[in-house]
Amino acid sequence: MALYALGDLHLSFQADKTMDIFGRVWRHHERKIEKYVNKIVKPEDTLVLTGDHSWGRKLEECREDLAFIQNLPGRKILLRGNHDMFWDAKKTKHLNEEYRDRLFFLQNNFAVYKDYALVGTKGFTFEGPFYLNRRGEIIGWDEEKEAHARKLVARETERLRDSFDQAEKAGFRKFIMFLHYPPTSILEETSPFTEIAKEYGAEAVVYSHCHGESRFGDSIRGDFQGIRYMLVSGDYLNFRPALVMK
Ligand SMILES: [Fe+2]
Asked: What CA–CA distance (Å, rounded) separates 186 from 31?
């Protein structure tokens, strides 16, 4: 029994969208996902998919993508990504009812893996625009956008706390925390998300969203403040699910 994670599948079985323009790693990436997940994940394992599942905008435009995910081995837990327009956070209960025993949608709830609670939310990070000097150093940024980002971060931290609190109330003391966005923006060393991970004693924080060589180092990777931070973007892993724990 093992816990795996992989993010940003960006499937488009029904939407007219190709990822090939983003580099060779994305060529026929759905075939790679199928191949590697089937090779690595066993039926008794759990696979957390950390958001940006589908390019479809409405649920009906995502059915084939969700069916593809459903057909992968193991128990599948899905987190919301910024592109997952089909998933209104307030309607998570409906999705969980509809996909009961097939997919679990992690939002304002938690899942159980051994004696761990799997908690999570989309998160948010300020991504600019930044103003650079001639040397490419950041000397400023769009303050209006940054203020808006702070509001979104506040809303997401509330959702994350709700997930932790429900798990704590149910008696869980061990946590793995999932985010779609990286836990910190490139301006930050710590953030409300790293603080929450510390406060509740999460053992690992797993996130994705960062694409391309130049973005993989945007946030924390490896051990930080006694917590293991893992980037699991599909293209970072060449679509091989990462082992979170056995
Ligand atoms: Fe994303």
From this structure: 32
Give the whole-angstrom CA distance, residue 61 versus residue 65: 8
> Angle at CA 199, nearest 5°, toward 193 and 201?
100
**Residue 180 C-alpha to ligand 1 middle, in angstroms?**
7
- DSSP per-residue codes, 107-152: SSS-EEETTEEEEEE--------EEE-TTS-EEEE-HHHHHHHHHH
pTM, two decimals, is: 0.96
Query: Ligand 1 mean position to 182 CA, how many Å?
Result: 9
Q: What's the pLDDT tens digit per position in 74-101?
A: 999 999 999 999 999 999 999 999 999 9
Residues whose CB is less than 8 angstroms from the CB of residue 158 and which lie 6 or more positions away in sequence, other chains included:
none
d(CA 82, ligand 1 centre) in Å: 5
Please list the residues that pair with 135 across neighbouring strands: none
> In 3D, which of 188, 163, 187, 198 has the Cα closest to residue 80?
163
Instruction: Select the more confidently predicted residue: 15 or 98.
Output: 98
